[in-house]
Amino acid sequence: MRNRIYLDHAATTAISPEVLEAMMPCLTESYGNASGVYATGREAHRILDRARKQAAEAIGATPPEICFTSGGSESDSWALIGIAAANRGKGNHIITSAIEHHAILRTCEWLEKQGFEVTRLPADEEGRIRPADLEQAIRPGTILISIMAANNEIGTIQQTAEFGKIAREHGIPFHTDAVQAMGAMPVDVNAWQADLLSLSAHKFHGPKGTGLLYIRKGTRIDPLIHGGAQERGLRAGTENVAGIAGMGKAMEIAAAGIPERAARETALRERLKAGLQAAVSGIRINGHPTNRLAGNLHVTIPGVDGEAMLLRLDLAGIAASSGSACTSGSTEPSHVLEAIGLTDEEIKSSLRLTIGEENTEAEIDETIRKITEIAADLRSMRDF
């Protein structure tokens, strides 16, 4: 499939050879249950310890603060439900933003049915949440603040350190969904003053079905999954040793090469942006112009149906998307694009192109050519 042009790295990434190499022994030789006291089990436990250390070092944490999960959605749900349950005696108010991933927003909707109150902070037209709005929303019963580090659709990077500072000053736990941030920008739980942080391995060349929740020492949180004593008694279930080994290696690699990777992907993004702006009339760039993930370009092409564009691109051998992978196929308009002020017509004419480290200038130039050609064709049919 490598003859295709893959521009949907925000949805998922391919496992890197180094990650696969780290995983294979766990599937063939070191396949023991990490809770076992025999040699094969002890070896599996050593693999878990090594991966936990790799993950912790990548984000400035300590190994005991890392709890492995099945992915970003579980980590997000656990952060919200676990903190809400553990702190209900202190209050019932949660603050988040209107542009969070559905893993946060739908968990908040569920919590509202359990009697909690949720404030959803608005975003400006570039997709940024204002610290002043957060400050104003805090009240005596606020028990959690959850704001993502970078948006999965439009790529806007938030002022995460400022949000963490505000939360710390008010003594409120701060959670950030950093699923899109890892590998694309520095992730530091101490610089951000984060008490909880969610990650998913498949977004940075690790395996699907593996994620983590960072839980700062001293943070009160209830388990989401009850049963055995795995993950310090906080997340029951036999550990996915192969997936965790892969995630640890993927985090080590992702954290090591950020400046070079970001510079290369930014250059490709700007090449794609300039080429489309020169060739396609009326095109609009969504999200913050500079404070955005290096590989993310989100555009609106007036007069072009986004789904038709995606289908035509797929036939041309180019993979892209219209927004979040978790809402692909949904008839509902993007809540992120609604939040930044796009009309329904503009939302339907939008396209997300996300670049990865394997993309080339030749692929970018071919993408520009194909989008230009398809846009002209779709517009001509509309005007016919």
Give an account of the 3D structure.
The structure is a single chain. The chain has 384 residues and is α/β, with parallel strands linked by helices. The protein folds into two domains: 5-12 and 258-383, Aspartate Aminotransferase, domain 1; 17-256, Type I PLP-dependent aspartate aminotransferase-like (Major domain) (Aspartate Aminotransferase, domain 2, 3-Layer(aba) Sandwich). It is built from twelve helices and twelve strands. A seven-stranded mixed sheet has the order 2-8-7-6-5-3-4, sandwiched between helices. Strands 9-10-12 form a three-stranded antiparallel sheet. A two-stranded parallel sheet has the order 1-11. Strand 5, helix 6 and strand 6 (174-177) form a beta-alpha-beta unit. Helix 8 packs parallel to helix 12 (361-383).
How would the blueprint of this fold be written?
Layout: E1 5-6, H1 17-28, H2 39-59, E2 66-69, H3 72-86, E3 93-97, H4 102-113, E4 117-121, H5 131-137, E5 142-146, H6 160-169, E6 174-177, E7 196-200, E8 211-215, H7 241-256, H8 258-279, E9 284-286, E10 296-300, H9 306-315, E11 318-319, H10 335-339, H11 344-348, E12 350-354, H12 361-383
Helix pairs in contact: 1-7, 2-7, 3-4, 8-12, 9-12
